[in-house]
Write a structure and sequence with these properties.
Layout (H helix, E strand, L loop, with lengths): L3 E4 L2 H15 L9 E4 L15 E4 L7 H9 L3 E5 L5 H17 L3 E6 L2 E5 L12 H5 L10
Parallel strand pairs: 1-2, 3-4
Antiparallel strand pairs: 4-6, 5-6
Length: 145
């Protein structure tokens, strides 16, 4: 005897007992059966990924806190310093170096003024050659790091 059935709506409930009646030949009092109505699982197009790589172009030192928050929530961050002065970029780099040390993460230069920061558990493989940045005629403090 069927004691409990999980269905999506009352129509499916009625169909289930009609099918049972057809195949078994038994009639049951449907009022005495317990049932649970469950919400159908909704599939979302907006998938929430646990770990992300976030691209950031800070415009002021105050945005360094947001970068730190991304790292603390176990996300990689690519930081492009092209929108800040060399003094501000140095301050942000100092701040990020402290954060990276605190969370036992890693940081690697991707190009002139661009770095990737990764929290513990992420591995950054490979190196980007710096030949192009050395040939560049720009004399910028950001090429130092």
């Amino acid at each position: 005897m069927l004691k409990c059935i999980c269905i999506n709506n009352k129509e499916e409930y009625k169909v289930a007992f009609k099918l049972k009646e057809i195949f078994t030949g038994e009639e049951e009092d449907t009022d005495s059966i317990d049932y649970e109505v469950k919400e159908p699982i909704k599939k979302s197009n907006n998938k929430e990924f646990k770990n992300k790589t976030i691209l950031v172009e800070p415009r002021a030192f105050s945005e360094a806190q947001q970068i730190a928050d991304y790292l603390k929530t176990n996300n990689q961050v690519v930081v492009n310093f092209k929108r800040v002065t060399s003094d501000v970029s140095k301050r942000i780099m100092d701040f990020l170096n402290g954060i990276i040390y605190a969370i036992e993460g890693t940081m690697q230069k991707l190009g002139p003024g661009i770095v990737i920061c990764a929290p513990k558990g992420f591995e950054i493989e490979g190196n980007i050659s710096e030949e192009e940045s050395k040939k560049s005629s720009k004399k910028d403090d950001m090429n130092e790091w």
